[in-house]
């Protein structure tokens, strides 16, 4: 059974892990789709935003005019390629602030509600010639990013939205060696527009809120159902084991008196026994004792199975020290064992408490009897009672002790510690359960501190106020 449950738990965990990966995969795909949709919407919103904007036309004309002039100087060998490209930042700085303000105003007008940075980047600049083109700049060859206009941002945060290509013929008059000449050339300029959306991940995730919440709820539900199912299965297994253990114990307890009753009845049927009055009376006494034993066993099962809701307390006011000393006196008389030593430390003065003497005495007796039963030698019990806000009773023994694992179930109905040494002691596993129910009925609590081979400390705490 344990092996089957272990296999079931392992398979369930593996299934849960597989489900987690599948759900993560689906969420990731949804995230990518939402991201693409968001970017596409942004692209459509700002598409061709600079059309019909005179201020943009003015900025572009200024840049290109300056650039064409510097290309002419390059063609006339007045500057080299590095100096030519160095002119790009200079002319950009002169118009860039105006450009940024213009596109930001336009984005707001188009309803862009989130921070959006825009950049126009130079991809290539080539002087065209029928014999051989002169590549002044080509991004993939030069392996660097050169932006013409807009905001400067890291390349790994950008998204390309469109590109444009300009081809034009240009002519310029110039004088060389006192002779007027005309310089003409064709050139090609390729640019690409990029955007950077600050906090776009949060925006995309915000759009996925319903999907994420639903996924978390479903995943939590699956985990909850799995946990509940496994816990219920383990609980049912424990209940089955406890029931089996209880049946074995009660069967063992019943066999002895029943066997004795059966033997005594057979003896009384014999004629030679009937003639001997002494044997008859002895046999009848045996039958009477065993009948009482059976009745007590049945009463123990019936009474000790009560829950705290079923216990009807008849409370009365008692002087704590007098009551506890009486309980300990009665217990020592009932034990009839010279090897039991009880050290009393009852520090309650003349204080009183409201409790049910019958039930509370039964609970204390159960703990004290266990201290005697689960002890292989001389029994030393330290009984301490102290009074602060509540009545605190500690019963310490030098018995065989209880492991931490077994302590968790010690106060459960029919539970008995599962080791051979303990099961050599007769019992139905109801004593401590019943004691716990009695303490709860008194609005108190009971705890245990113990370790195997080191005895145990049972602590009962109950309120003493008279209006309880």
Largest sheet: 5 strands, antiparallel
Flag low-confidence runs: 419-424
The shape is: rod-shaped
Span of the ends, CA to CA = 47 Å
How many strands in all? 12
- β-sheet strand percentage: 15-25%
Rg (C-alpha, Å): 47 Å
Helix tally equals: 13
Helix content: 40-55%
Give the topology string: H per helix, E per strand.
HHHEEHEEEHHHHEHEEHEEHHHEE
User: What does the average pLDDT come to?
Assistant: 82
What structural class do you assign from the helix and strand content?
Answer: alpha+beta
Give the quaternary arrangement of the chains.
Answer: single chain
Outline of this structure?
Helices cover 54% and strands 23% of the residues. The chain is of the alpha+beta class and 468 residues long.
Fold and architecture overview:
- The chain has 13 helices and twelve strands.
- The protein has 468 residues and is α+β, with helices and mostly antiparallel strands.
- It has helices spanning 2-46, 54-75, 81-109, 139-142, 200-207, 209-269, 271-274, 277-304, 320-335, 357-373, 404-407, 420-423, 431-441, and strands at residues 116-128, 134-138, 146-150, 159-176, 179-197, 316-319, 340-347, 352-355, 379-387, 390-397, 445-450, 456-463.
- The strands form three sheets. Strands 1, 2, 3, 4 and 5 form a five-stranded antiparallel β-sheet that branches. It has a five-stranded mixed β-sheet with strand order 7-9-10-12-11, covered by helices on one side.
What key phrases describe this protein's structure?
468 residues; five-stranded mixed sheet; alpha+beta; five-stranded antiparallel sheet; single chain; rod-shaped; 13 helices
């Amino acid at each position: 059974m344990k092996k089957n449950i272990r296999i079931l738990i392992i398979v369930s965990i593996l299934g849960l892990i597989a489900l987690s990966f599948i759900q993560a995969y689906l969420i990731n795909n949804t995230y990518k789709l939402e991201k693409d949709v968001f970017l596409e919407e942004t692209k459509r919103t700002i598409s061709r935003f600079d059309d019909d904007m005179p201020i943009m036309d003015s900025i572009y004309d200024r840049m290109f005019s300056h650039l064409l002039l510097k290309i002419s100087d390059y063609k006339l060998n007045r500057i080299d390629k590095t100096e030519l490209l160095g002119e790009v930042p200079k002319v950009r700085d002169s118009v860039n602030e105006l450009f940024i303000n213009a596109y930001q105003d336009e984005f707001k007008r188009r309803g862009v509600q989130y921070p959006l940075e825009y950049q126009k980047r130079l991809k290539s600049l080539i002087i065209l010639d029928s014999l051989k083109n002169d590549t002044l700049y080509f991004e993939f060859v030069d392996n660097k990013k050169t932006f013409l206009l807009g905001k400067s941002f890291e390349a790994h945060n950008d998204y390309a939205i469109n590109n444009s290509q300009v081809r034009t013929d240009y002519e310029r008059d110039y004088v060389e060696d006192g002779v007027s000449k005309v310089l003409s050339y064709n050139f090609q300029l390729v640019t690409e527009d990029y955007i950077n959306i600050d906090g776009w991940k949060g925006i995309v995730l915000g759009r996925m809120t319903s999907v994420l919440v639903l996924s978390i709820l479903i995943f939590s539900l699956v985990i909850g159902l799995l946990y509940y199912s496994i816990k219920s299965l383990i609980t049912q297994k424990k209940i089955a084991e406890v029931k089996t253990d209880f049946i074995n114990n009660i069967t063992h307890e019943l066999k002895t008196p029943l066997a004795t009753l059966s033997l005594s009845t057979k003896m009384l049927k014999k004629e030679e026994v009937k003639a001997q009055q002494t044997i008859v009376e002895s046999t009848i006494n045996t039958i009477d004792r065993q009948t009482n034993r059976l009745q007590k066993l049945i009463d123990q099962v019936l009474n000790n199975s009560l829950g705290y809701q079923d216990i009807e307390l008849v409370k009365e006011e008692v002087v704590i020290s007098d009551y506890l000393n009486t309980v300990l006196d009665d217990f020592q008389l009932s034990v009839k064992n010279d090897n039991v030593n009880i050290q009393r430390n009852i520090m309650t003065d003349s204080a009183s408490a409201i409790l049910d003497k019958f039930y509370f005495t039964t609970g204390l007796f159960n703990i004290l009897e266990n201290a005697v039963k689960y002890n292989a030698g001389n029994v030393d019990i330290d009984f301490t009672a102290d009074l602060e806000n509540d009545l605190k009773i500690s019963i310490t023994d030098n018995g065989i002790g209880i492991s931490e694992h077994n302590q968790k179930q010690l106060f459960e109905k029919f539970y008995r510690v599962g080791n051979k040494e303990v099961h050599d002691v007769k019992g139905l596993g109801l004593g401590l359960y019943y004691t716990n129910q009695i303490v709860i009925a008194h609005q108190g609590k009971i705890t245990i501190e113990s370790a195997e081979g080191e005895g145990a400390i049972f602590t009962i705490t109950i309120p003493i106020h008279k209006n309880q």
